[in-house]
Each structure stands twice: as C-alpha cells, then as structure tokens.
Please model this.
Amino acid sequence: MKKYHDNTQCIHGPEHFEDPHGALTAPLYQTSTFAFKDAAQGAARFAGEEAGYIYTRLGNPTTRELEQKLAQLEEMEDAAATATGMGAVSASVLSFLQQGDHLIASSALYGCSFALFAHMLPKFGIEVTFVDMTNETELKAALKPNSKMIFAETPINPNMTVLDLKMLGDFAKQHQLISVIDNTFMTPLLQKPKHFGIDIVIHSATKYLNGHGDVVAGIVCGTKEHIELIKLTVLKDIGATISPHDAWLINRGLKTLAVRMARHCESAQKVAEYLEKHPKVSKVYYPGLASHPGYKFLGEQMKGAGGVIAFEIVGSLQDGEAFINATELCTLAVSLGDPETLIQHPASMTHSPYTPEERQAAGISDGLIRISVGLEDVEDIIADLENAFRGF
Ligand SMILES: *Cc1c(COP(=O)(O)O)cnc(C)c1O
Model:
C-alpha cells in the first residue's frame, strides 16, 4: 500500500489524484451532503452495495484523503479522522469498551484523556486502573479477568517519559488486550507503534500533523475492521466528525511534516542542551539528552526526540510564574507542534484536571515548565529564555 518513503508520502498522498482541470492540490469538498442520481442509487449507497458518499458525518472525499494518508504513514490498514484529538481518544475507548469491561491506562496522560478515564468511563460501568507503565510488574498486577484494553502515550506529556512499546505490544498480545497508543508527540515520522504490535494509534492532529496552530482535529488508525466499527458506532452516532475544511488544512500541513519535524527535533536538542547547563534549571526532561531515561529508546523505537521539553526551575512556584511571564518570543499558551514556540505551566494549565495527589503520582511538580520548541531561529528562542532567566 505504501509506495514511497515517508517524506515523499507526506507530499504525494494516498492515490494519484485526477482532477478534470489538472489542479495540483486536491480540491476541498466543502459540502454537507451528496446528491444521488436517482432513488435506486440512494438506496444502494445506504445499503452499502455501491461505494460513494452520502453525508459528510459519514464520510467526505477531503476527509478520506487525510485518512488514507495517515493510514499509509502509520503503516496501518485504515484511519478515521475526528473533530479533535479528544474525539479520537473517546472514539477509541467507547467503540471497544462496554459496561463491565476493564481498561488499564497509564497513570500519566494528556490531562483530558485522564479526566475521561478517571471521571467519565466509570459512570458507564467501565472499570479503569491507572498504572506506571514503565513498570512491567505493576502492569501485570493490574490485569483482571475482564481487562479488555491498554491505553498509553509515549513520550508522556509533559515530562517526556518514554514507554517501551515492544513490552506493551507483547503484553497486550499475550493477554488478548486491545492496545492503544497516543502518538501525538512523535508523529508517524518519528515513531510507528504498529512496528511493535500496537493495534490502534491515535493522534491529536491539532499538533504536529497540521502544524500551523489553526485547526483542532484528531485521527485514529487501525485495522479495517476496527476503523469500520469506530465509524459506524462512535463517529456516526456520537458525531465527533472532522470538518472537511479542517481536513483540507491538515492535508496541506502534512506536506511539510517531514521538514518541520526535522527542524523541531534539531532546535529542541539545542534548547535542551542549553537548559541542562543553566544554573537556574535543576532538571531537564528531554529524551535527546543522555541524562534522560528515554534516551535508550532513540534509534530502535524513536527516530528522533521530538520538539517538547519539560524542565524544573530552581526556586518557588512564584519564580516559575515570573519566568513564564518574562518570556517575549515564547508565547504563553498550551498546545504544541506549532511554528511558534509555546511555553506553559502544566500544574495550573494542561494538568489542572488532575487533583494535586494525582499530579504527584504522574510526576508533575508545581515547578515544572513545558516548552514546545517552534520553528523560529533557535538563537532567538535561547536568547528569549536567557533574558527571562535574568529576571529572577
Ligand atoms: C492535545 C492532545 C490531545 C487532545 O487533542 P485535542 O486536539 O486538543 O482534542 C490528546 N493527546 C495528546 C498527547 C495531546 O497532546
């Protein structure tokens, strides 16, 4: 199915696109519905006897282009695009789990994934156990007769703990669990969970895949059978469907994914090395640093360390606040994967859905700062940080 190497594939898309006018870029099908030739055709489409589109919540050609491209990049059979990354997270759990099932989830997760699992799933009778997935013993101990799925992300937001995908994939296979990995921080260019036996790979396409900070969207990749189930259950009936316009923007963003990721990794490495030497920084979390436990996964599991760094400032919570207020170029905003460098404080922002105890268990201290290194000249990013450090 995959014809070219990744960088070429990002640009050239799933299929040869034939436009009557010879357009270079596939057009945007900004339409809610699709007209049928006659009653028989409408009936055949609904019965699934004839391929073709019916209504955009069920499918759209622009959305389909995005889905096929992502499935190819992840080397999985198919994909379903969603309205947001959380739409992808919720679709992946709600399609496969039902009352009485047990989910084993990583104790450190994107804040809203954690909130969904900790506070919402139990309302529907789904049991959830949170475990430190770096610890195989703890993972095994969480197993119950009704365990159905494991869910994790790697590297883990925000302190970039790297999980062993092979260990997780093998564990899931051995116990017949569906394995789900949120691959947002790596993109398929830096990490392909499928290579380690993972069943479902999801993304917040809001981040690197789109890469321009102007869309919220998500995507789920899996087998044809899994994706069909997701589309026919959660997407069709709950409705977290992506807008075709957003899908079109992501198709455009994907064309530069390879060059953007290379630059994000290169600059983040320089910023991490700068921070590690800084006297006002007590700890830097970045898998590209030999001091980080995730460093050993570079190569085999991850082709690069990505663009996100977390670090601890020497001083109080107030010093941390003063630091982020003092940056000028680095924008105080949540999200990541944009051209702009973004800086934020997980304890009061992205991870505020956690209670203080839950944050402690997930290793998120009050002094932790997260930076998503953008595409600016790295000298300017470092100069901005240096200037902010001078203020306290
Ligand atoms: C942002 C993010 C999400 C949620 O995505 P949205 O597009 O904001 O809904 C899920 N997982 C990770 C790792 C994220 O960074």
User: Anything to note?
Assistant: The chain has a mean pLDDT of 94. The two ends are 55 Å apart (CA to CA). The longest strand covers residues 147-153. Residues 84-86, 89, 110, 113, 153, 157, 182, 184-185, 204, 206-207, 216, 218 surround pyridoxal-5'-phosphate (CB under 6 Å).
